[in-house]
Amino acid sequence: MADRGHSIRPARSVRYRLLAIALLPMLVILPLLLGVTVYRWNAKFDAALISKVNGDLTIAHQYLAHILDNTGEHVTALGGSVRFREAAGDGAALDALLDEARARLELDFLYVIDREGRLMASVTGQTAGALRTDWPVIRDALAGRPSTGIDIFDNADLQTLSLDLAARARVPLVPTPNAVPTERTEETRGMVVQSASPVNLGDGREAVLVGGILLNQNLVFIDTINDLVYREASLPEGSQGTATLFLDDVRISTNVRLFEGRRALGTRVSAAVRSAVLGEGQTWLDSAFVVNDWYISAYEPIEDSRGKRVGMLYVGFLEAPFTAAKHQTVLTIVAAFLAITAASVPIFLRWARGIFEPLERVDATIAKVESGDLGARTGAVGSRDEIGRVAVHLDDLLDQLERSDRQLRRWNEELNARVDERTRELQLANRQLEATTKQLIMSEKLAAIGEITAGVAHEINNPIAVMQGNLEVVRAVVGDRAELAKVEFQLLDEQIQRISQIVTKLLQFAKPEEFAGFVDRHAPGAAVADCLPLVQHLLARAAIEVTLTDTAGRLVLMNRTELQQVVVNLVVNAIHAMPDGGRLAMTTRDSDRDGRPGVEIVVSDTGIGMDPAVAAKVFDPFFTTKRQDGTGLGLSISQTLVRRQGGAIACASRPGEGATFTVWLPEAE
Predict the structure, then answer these.
(1) Which residue has the higher pLDDT, 579 or 356?
(2) Pick from 317, 341, 365: which residue ends a domain?
(3) Which residue from 10, 203, 281, 373 has the fewest beta carbons nearer than 10 Å?
(4) Which has the closest alpha carbon to 578: 613, 545, 533?
(5) DSSP SS3 for 203
(6) Are the C-beta atoms of 130 and 118 separated by less than 8 Å?
(7) Is residue 191 part of a domain?
(8) How far apart are CA 328 and CA 236, in angstroms?
(9) Model confidence at 454, in pLDDT bands (50, 70, 90)?
(10) In terms of domains, do 191 and 306 share one?
(11) Is residue 153 a part of any domain in this protein?
């Protein structure tokens, strides 16, 4: 089943890839392009609105500059006129001239003062007898230069000109969201366009003609700006243009409606706009919340005659109609895209189906063949393109495959017959090999015994018996005086017993069938320790230092003499690897492998070592590095004995760094 699942996945992958190829341009790429286009169009649209409001602000600024220029020109022209010179000597005539000129020039105040600020003529009898002369425009006029500028008059200054002007300047403050908090309840100051021109009253008397316009609640001024900037049909239906003059952040003249029928006089600008325009002197060109709605807004700072920022000029138009137009455009684009998608996607899907359905039939045929149905065929797919030709070729190949399968089955039957015959021959050879292996094991053991017994001189048991008998004779002859050498006699007995034990262990190793006979549980450390006396003469001859570390607490299940045969073989090989002496380390310790508890016997030497190629072959039968001194079966037999008990033997060595052989045996259950 796993093979069939593996064959189905490519067909599904083709289906999905074809669907992706068909739908990706329409459902992913095109929407992304539309999104980028709409985003850029929206940015351009917003930039166009900002550009328009910036142009509107330019017109409003030019009109304010025009008011300043006209006021200055009118006052200067009046001061230099013949009528003014003729009326200068007659106070009543001068008052009448000023009154007529104020009405004609649409000024809010017009008066004449001398160089000390004493009033000489005015359009109203409410003007104080002495007026301020420290205004920059008046100082310029006293210096002989006509000057015009915007100045902020305190309410007291306005009262010195006219109580009506002081009253008109008062604007109650209306709480406004987002404005800077304030404790004031009304604005009493006035923003004044003030112009001064030097005049000559005759008889060498010099004076200053001062005229101006109060902009607070000057609806004619602000409506004129609005009419100039936002002429009829200059904005789309539903939008509305507005203009405002600010004293500080308070609307003192505006056509913005607080509600129907009431202008938003006394409302204040937001803190963000105030900080940018009044605080930093920037021109604000962006959306802003104006009183109760969002406007595309433009604000610029207004400076007085001293160069101080004292107010703002604002123009703007409602943002909502433009936002609605943008939304309508986006919705139209989305609706058109959905309509095109609904019409074209089925066509794309039909084309894609004409490709993946034949491929799925081909894949289903392959799946049946994989499951064993060699007679499965795709048949006609109704397509004359490349896919149709692939289906025809596939059926031809399956026909060839079926014929080849029948032929292979016949060959397989013949091969099985030959294999059975060869297997019987191999089984016979294997039994012969097992018999030969047993003989080789005995031969290797006898070879080891021969090498060990080479160091034993003559027969040991007979000299031991003679020595022990003579020792008894000596005790009898000496009699009671033997107690004087009791310690010496005891030492002789112990050494004779030690020699006897060595000979016994040698015989156990040489003829295990006479001394052992079966597999038993025993501590590997004791078996390893018993091997040392068997090779002591080889160790002494090569001046080898031996260390034995026994930390194993577990028992192993193995014939004791077979285990000793393995250990003796490893020790003898280690001695041969250290002809000039060295260190031989033997260690037993508990060790787990693959979750099974067991014991490790490690034999390490500091000999000449082996390169990796030699180390990989040491367990091969008949492989030896001792030339004519070995058969090459010692390690191979040792490996066989260890594996027979479910254990393992491994070698690790590098040239010049000695070798380490590790024997692992499972714990006896």
Answers:
(1) 579
(2) 341
(3) 203
(4) 545
(5) coil
(6) yes
(7) yes
(8) 14
(9) very low
(10) yes
(11) yes
DSSP 258: E
Report whether pLDDT(457) > 50: no
d(CA 181, CA 502): 112
Structure tokens at 389: 């030709």
Q: Kindly state the tokens that stand for 202.
A: 């005759």
> Is 393 among the domain residues?
no
The domain in which residue 329 lies consists of: 10-341
What's the pLDDT score for residue 2? 43
Q: What's the rounded Cα separation, in Å, for the pair 120 and 34?
A: 74
Confidence of residue 664 (pLDDT cuts 50, 70, 90): very high
Of these ranges, 394-408, 554-568, 654-668, the one predicted with the greatest mean pLDDT is: 654-668
Lowest mean pLDDT among 360-364, 591-595, 617-621: 360-364
User: Cβ atoms within 10 A of the Cβ of 454, count?
Assistant: 10
Q: Which residue carries 């393109």 as its tokens?
A: 385
In whole angstroms, what is the distance from residue 264 CA to residue 242 CA? 11
Q: Find the mean pLDDT for residues 341-346.
A: 74
- Which token pair is 614? 């030699």
Residue written as token pair 């034995």: 548
Q: Tokens at residue 562, please?
A: 């077979």
Same domain flag for 606 and 491 = yes
As a whole number of angstroms, the distance between CA 301 and CA 246 comes to 9
The pLDDT of residue 448? 62
Residues 450 and 577 in one domain: yes
Tell me the average pLDDT across 5-17: 52
Q: Could you tell me if residue 416 is inside a domain? A: no
Please report where in the chains the tokens 């920037």 appear, as a residue. 282
> Distance between CA atoms of 209 and 196, rounded to whole angstroms?
6
| Full-model pTM | 0.52
Q: Each residue of 93-149: pLDDT tens digit?
A: 888 888 899 889 899 999 999 888 898 888 888 888 888 889 999 999 999 899 999
Rounded Cα–Cα distance for residues 551 and 588 (Å): 6
Q: Distance of CA 610 to CAs 170, 408, 615, 617, Å?
A: 111, 49, 6, 11
Alpha-carbon separation of residue 217 from 28, 168, 169, 253, 509 (angstroms): 58, 7, 7, 5, 129
Sign of the dihedral defined by the CA atoms of residues 87, 93, 97, 98, in that order? positive
Widest distance between CA atoms in the chain: 183
Residues 6+ apart with CB under 8 A from 341: 26, 27
Gap between the Cα atoms of 454 and 451, Å rounded: 5
Phi, psi (5° rounding) for residue 179?
-85, 160
Q: Is the pLDDT of residue 657 over 90?
A: no
